Amino acid sequence: MFENADALLLARFQFAFTVSFHFIFPAFSIGLASYLAVLEGLWLKTGKPLYLDLFKYWLKIFAITFAMGVVSGIVMSYQFGTNWAVFSDRAGPVIGPLMAYEVLTAFFLEAGFLGVMLFGMEKVGKKLHFAATCMVALGTAVSAFWILSVNSWMQTPVGHEFGANGQFLPGPSWWTIVFNPSFPYRLVHTVIAAYLTTAMVVGAVGAWHLLRDRSNAHARKMFSMAMWMAALVAPVQIFAGDMHGLNTLEHQPVKVMAMEGHFQSHPDGAPLILFGIPDSQANVIHYAIEIPKASSLILKHSLDAPLAGLDTVPEDLHPSVGIVFWSFRIMVGIGLGMLGLGLWSLLARWRGKLYDWPWLHRAALVMGPSGFVAVIAGWVTTEVGRQPWTVYGLLRTADSVSPLDAPAVGLSLLAFVVVYFTVFGVGTWYILRLMNAAPHSHEEGLEHEPAPVRTAGITPAAGQLTADDREGA
């Protein structure tokens, strides 16, 4: 069935499929780890059991999310060697050490403290457990740091040299590679997106339980915290996104042309095309709804500033305009929706109706998965907009693929689709089941066995059983 297929297209689709699945879980776990640290810190500071209940409630969800993120991430490393062997050989001296740094820092940090965080609350002191939670949260952020550094170097490659065999070799300063021109903007934009993704999920769960019972104190607290995050951080994200867009215009102008739908150059000010149907064959946006000169105002801060279009770029260097155009608008539209939800919650809070407006709660419930859609749309905009390059301007995607036949790539793609939808579908179903249960007082955490776990079948002698052991038996 794959004999007449394009091996390159299948390899790209396979990578896109697995990355999209993987990206969903870190986008949630990065924000959720920090939320757990905040909840435990508030519990230690105030002594209120409500914060501990919420911590234990979300800890169970975090454990499953984190596990699925790790498992789905392992596949990515193998794909570099199987489907993208030429890219791995050419760019390995640069991206290999950066990914190793992630393992040596983030993975070791998370592995060292995750067990204490998940199972150690009754076994270590409160302050030590809080420190472990903070270390796990830090580890997720450090992981994002290194992965985004790798991807950003592929977007804006600097600090390297070329070997005799065409390999990218590190230059005299690794910091030039790590802190490449697009990295700071992409790091801030992505981490804030993870926090907003988590806020939307927490807000949706809180809204779900408020619609059932407005008097639920735990649902009230989580909904209030999530809405504060939406109201305060969504404007910051919009500003960060604008700065990131200006940086992209400087270093990857063709991507911005596709995002804006500018097939033609505009010497006297470019319009902001809100909606339309891109036609890459005719190089035009059909049925365009636009605001005159607004794109020049946003990108150049001048109504009459000229903006170049795709007519200045050879056609073989054009990305897929239709995909980039619409994925960008989905991301921006959801961001504005988050801002609107945050402002609505501020109005409700000001009027003392935050827990009494069902339509606000329904809106928050609908917005629950919006963060995941936004981060995937943003990733599609970034990666498809970079095409036809793997390392922007230096290594084409067509020259990066392994010499594989289409059936080999297609069969592995089918296997990934079946396994991913089965395994992660079950995991997602179980997470939703946990969310469906309302948080309550004296919430049970991940450990509630009366006796300690004993390995290798070793148990104390009958005369050494403690009272708790005998009760559990």
Automatic annotation (TrEMBL):
<feature type="transmembrane region" description="Helical">
    <location>
        <begin position="323"/>
        <end position="347"/>
    </location>
</feature>
<feature type="region of interest" description="Disordered">
    <location>
        <begin position="445"/>
        <end position="473"/>
    </location>
</feature>
<feature type="transmembrane region" description="Helical">
    <location>
        <begin position="359"/>
        <end position="380"/>
    </location>
</feature>
<keyword id="KW-0813">Transport</keyword>
<keyword id="KW-0408">Iron</keyword>
<keyword id="KW-0472">Membrane</keyword>
<feature type="transmembrane region" description="Helical">
    <location>
        <begin position="98"/>
        <end position="121"/>
    </location>
</feature>
<dbReference type="Pfam" id="PF01654">
    <property type="entry name" value="Cyt_bd_oxida_I"/>
</dbReference>
<comment type="similarity">
    <text>Belongs to the cytochrome ubiquinol oxidase subunit 1 family.</text>
</comment>
<keyword id="KW-0249">Electron transport</keyword>
<feature type="transmembrane region" description="Helical">
    <location>
        <begin position="223"/>
        <end position="240"/>
    </location>
</feature>
<keyword id="KW-0349">Heme</keyword>
<protein>
    <submittedName>
        <fullName>Cytochrome ubiquinol oxidase subunit I</fullName>
    </submittedName>
</protein>
<keyword id="KW-1003">Cell membrane</keyword>
<feature type="transmembrane region" description="Helical">
    <location>
        <begin position="57"/>
        <end position="78"/>
    </location>
</feature>
<keyword id="KW-1133">Transmembrane helix</keyword>
<feature type="transmembrane region" description="Helical">
    <location>
        <begin position="15"/>
        <end position="36"/>
    </location>
</feature>
<keyword id="KW-0812">Transmembrane</keyword>
<keyword id="KW-0479">Metal-binding</keyword>
<feature type="transmembrane region" description="Helical">
    <location>
        <begin position="128"/>
        <end position="148"/>
    </location>
</feature>
<feature type="transmembrane region" description="Helical">
    <location>
        <begin position="187"/>
        <end position="211"/>
    </location>
</feature>
<dbReference type="InterPro" id="IPR002585">
    <property type="entry name" value="Cyt-d_ubiquinol_oxidase_su_1"/>
</dbReference>
<feature type="transmembrane region" description="Helical">
    <location>
        <begin position="409"/>
        <end position="432"/>
    </location>
</feature>
